């Protein structure tokens, strides 16, 4: 049942492609080429079915073996855990599998591009269906396609347009970025366990030609229109330059003054708001300085109590060396420790006492540095709070004055604009339009646009004429690859 479901998906895809690329006509010839290929996509055998329908609607079908090369090649490559692997070695393996499917058009046609004959790949539409077993494959992803969930099984459908990107030369233009990604293949990835599959189905058909009745202009017609547009724009911009030259200086000065006053007013307002916020914040910090100082003094007192307690506990050791112990404070500890260390001696019999004194010195050095830092911080906060109040007051006055200046400058600019704004805007607008639109447009018309137009016309005219004798109305290739 699982296999029937997978094949039903493939049949459905084939029907959709066939319906999308054929039209029922009287007296027509349709070809279907069945290709049996190995797991890498290399053809092993081809069977051609040709159906001819006469004017009366009677159909005659013949079959034959195919021996001509296919117009489109399908390449399927496999990687397991980042390493290339042959299909024959893949069966039963587990890991992270990547399948790369590439389509390539091997047929070219001769067309005219900007008056020169050139060879262009004939574009095709290719689509591949790969049925997957959910017990074997998980975390399936695909580029240029879709993973279809069908209950207990799933399938990957991917597609490509081999030859179309090369025919349009989408990445070969200097002036125009087409920003088009035309796929010519797909990449399928999945985590697999004891990998196996029943093979894939690929359908290939030509991209229908002659799909438009609209008559596209030629490159020569584009060049003529470009020249006329350049001449008309040159006359228009020259007249605007002469009319606007007398008013540029006054208008420029007034606009600069207005712009400067506006920036000054905006900056003064922001400065005033920022200074007020800064003053408020520093005032709050200054109000907390007393509590911070009290806390620091309590911490230092606790450190001194601990240090003096440690000395008292070791008094026997110091009395044995004849050293008198005094109470240590942050004001006298450095001198007292120097005195006791001199009496003890660093390498003498009492070196343990020396090491103790050095450890106590380190603690007291840290306590003194902490107390000095707190004092410096609170003093700086107090000074900053006073300065911020002064700055806030001055910023308020500056904001008021800048607002008045901005209002006066705006009135001056308005008066100057009434004299020359209309003409200046016309001149600037014409210059911008000439630079950003007309010059670019004429550059495109003279260069890449003409080539793109010719290539689009060529793609609509190119078609695949058939596998057997190049007289078929439609040809459909169905490629069945071997399983793994």
Task: Tell me what you see in this structure.
This protein is of the alpha+beta class. The protein folds into two domains: 2-209 and 463-481, no CATH class; 211-461, no CATH class. Helix content is 50%, strand content 24%. It has nine helices and 15 strands. It has helices at residues 2-21, 164-168, 219-244, 248-287, 289-313, 315-320, 333-344, 351-446, 448-461, and strands at residues 28-37, 43-53, 59-65, 72-80, 83-85, 95-105, 108-113, 116-121, 124-133, 137-142, 145-150, 153-160, 185-192, 201-206, 474-481. The strands form three sheets. Strands 3-2-1-15-14-9-12-11 form an eight-stranded mixed β-sheet, with helices on one face. Strands 5-4-6-13-10 form a five-stranded antiparallel β-sheet, with no helix packed on it. A hairpin with a 2-residue loop joins β7 (108-113) and β8 (116-121). α3 crosses α8. The protein is flat and about 130 Å long. It starts with a helix and ends with a strand.
Q: Briefly note the structural class of the backbone.
A: alpha+beta
- The strands making up the biggest β-sheet line up spatially as 3-2-1-15-14-9-12-11
- Cα-based radius of gyration, to the nearest Å: 44 Å
Q: What spatial form do the alpha-carbon principal axes imply?
A: flat
Strand content is 15-25%
- Counting DSSP H or I runs of 4 or more residues, the number of helices is 9
Helix content: 40-55%
Number of domains: 2
């Amino acid at each position: 049942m699982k296999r029937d479901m997978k094949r039903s998906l493939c049949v459905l895809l084939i029907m959709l492609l066939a319906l999308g690329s054929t039209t029922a006509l009287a007296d027509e010839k349709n070809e279907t080429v069945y290709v049996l290929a190995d797991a890498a996509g290399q053809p092993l055998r081809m069977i051609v079915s040709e159906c001819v329908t006469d004017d009366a609607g009677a159909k005659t079908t013949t079959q034959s073996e195919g021996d001509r090369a296919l117009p489109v090649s399908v390449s399927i490559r496999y990687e397991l855990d980042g390493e290339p692997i042959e299909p024959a070695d893949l069966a039963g393996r587990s890991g992270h599998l990547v399948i790369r499917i590439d389509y390539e058009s091997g047929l070219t046609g001769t067309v005219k591009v900007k008056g020169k004959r050139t060879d262009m790949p004939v574009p095709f539409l290719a689509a591949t269906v790969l049925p997957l077993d959910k017990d074997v494959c998980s975390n399936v992803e695909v580029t240029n396609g879709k993973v279809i969930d069908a209950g207990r099984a799933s399938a990957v459908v991917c597609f490509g347009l081999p030859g179309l990107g090369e025919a349009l030369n989408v990445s070969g233009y200097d002036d125009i970025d087409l920003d088009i990604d035309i796929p010519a293949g797909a990449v399928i990835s999945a985590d697999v366990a004891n990998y196996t599959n029943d093979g894939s189905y690929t359908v290939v058909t030509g991209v229908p030609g002659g799909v438009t009745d609209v008559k596209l202009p030629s490159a020569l017609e584009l060049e003529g229109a470009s020249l006329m547009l350049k001449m008309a724009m040159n006359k228009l911009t020259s007249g605007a330059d002469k009319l606007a030259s007398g008013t540029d200086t006054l208008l420029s000065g007034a606009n600069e003054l207005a712009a400067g006053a506006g920036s000054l007013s905006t900056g003064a307002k922001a400065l005033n708001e920022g200074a007020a916020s800064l003053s408020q914040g520093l005032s709050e910090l200054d109000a907390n300085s007393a509590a911070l100082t009290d806390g620091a003094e309590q911490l230092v007192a606790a450190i001194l109590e601990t240090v003096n307690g440690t000395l008292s506990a070791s008094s026997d050791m110091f009395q044995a060396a004849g050293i008198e112990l005094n109470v240590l404070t942050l004001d006298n500890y450095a001198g007292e420790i120097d005195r006791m260390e001199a009496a003890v001696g660093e390498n003498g019999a009492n070196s343990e006492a020396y090491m103790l004194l050095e450890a106590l010195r380190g603690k007291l050095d840290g306590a003194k540095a902490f107390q000095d830092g707190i004092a410096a911080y609170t003093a700086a906060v107090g000074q900053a709070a006073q300065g911020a109040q002064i700055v806030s007051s001055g910023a308020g006055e500056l904001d008021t004055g800048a607002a008045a200046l901005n209002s006066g400058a705006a009135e001056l600019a308005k008066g100057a604009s009434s004299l020359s704004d209309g003409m200046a805007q016309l001149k600037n607008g014409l210059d911008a339009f000439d630079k950003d639109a007309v010059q670019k447009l004429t550059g495109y018309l003279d260069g890449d646009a003409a080539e793109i137009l010719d290539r689009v016309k060529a793609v609509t005219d190119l078609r695949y004429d058939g596998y057997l004798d190049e007289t078929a109305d439609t040809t459909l290739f169905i490629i069945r690859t071997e399983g793994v």
